[in-house]
Prior knowledge:
Layout: E1 2-4, E2 7-12, E3 22-30, E4 35-38, E5 44-50, E6 53-57, E7 60-62, E8 68-71, E9 78-82, E10 86-93, H1 95-101, E11 113-115, H2 116-120, H3 122-133, H4 138-154, H5 162-171, H6 177-184, H7 188-198, H8 203-219, H9 238-249, H10 253-257, H11 262-275
Antiparallel strand pairs: 1-2, 2-3, 3-10, 4-9, 5-8, 5-10, 6-7, 6-9, 8-11
Amino acid sequence: xxxxxxxxxxMLRPAxxxxxxxxxxxxxxxxxxxxxxxxxxxxxxxxTLAGEWxxxxxxxxxxxxxxAALFGPTDRAATFASTGAAIMLxxxxxxxxxxxxxxxxxxxxxxxxxxxxxxxxxxxxxxxDAALAVAxxxxxxxxxxxxxxxxxxxxxxAADPRIAAxxxxxxxxxxxxxxxxxxxxxSERTLHRLCLRAxxxxxxxxxxxxxxxxxxxxxxxxxxxxxxxxxxxxxVDQSHFNRDFRYFMGTTPTAYFDSPREIMRRAAVARRTxxxxxxxxxxxxxx
Length: 287
């Protein structure tokens, strides 16, 4: 848990039966208006338990369902903000989890948000809404999510096992698409199809995104050291990384690291304690 004064970020562990499908549950609770940046990464299910949260990207407001939403994978940062006191609950999905839980291709919802009921159905969504409404505490919230997700996963056909292989290969940092396909044990054509289905983007774009996230994870906690010694080997030089930083974050490294990052700093600490990784996009793939 990362908690200070009016703002708290808590990570909860999903049930063992959800290993490989959901990496963590998280709760962001604030007593005051707060804003931060969501990073590029995998899809999430999010619930607004109290208050109101707003999402903007490149200065454009993105309508967000008032209660239960499915956030697609993203390749750019977006600003999310509460208008005052508010509570958000989320479940971080792995690529296998996305494919197991939802029929919609991740590419259809990349950089988009939709009503959870649009993809999970009104009945299923009403069930989890009702369970969360009576959950007395964090343990009750986790138990409600566990029961709902386990039941939903069990009622559906198993996801293509090659998706987990693709995810593992991606996290092993292949240098190019042919190497990515070889590591996953599939053809480049199949790799492309599986990436769109479960990760939302083409293989080349995913390699670029993960290279950026690996470097961001390294530099966030050691800002007193020169970046040149921390950037991923896939970058030619620091200027190359700076260009990617602006592409994914919409700002410069200096501006970003000088910003408060009140939620994401706490989330990184809590996630690293719970899962061993500070960023959802770097969470280990299913075995």
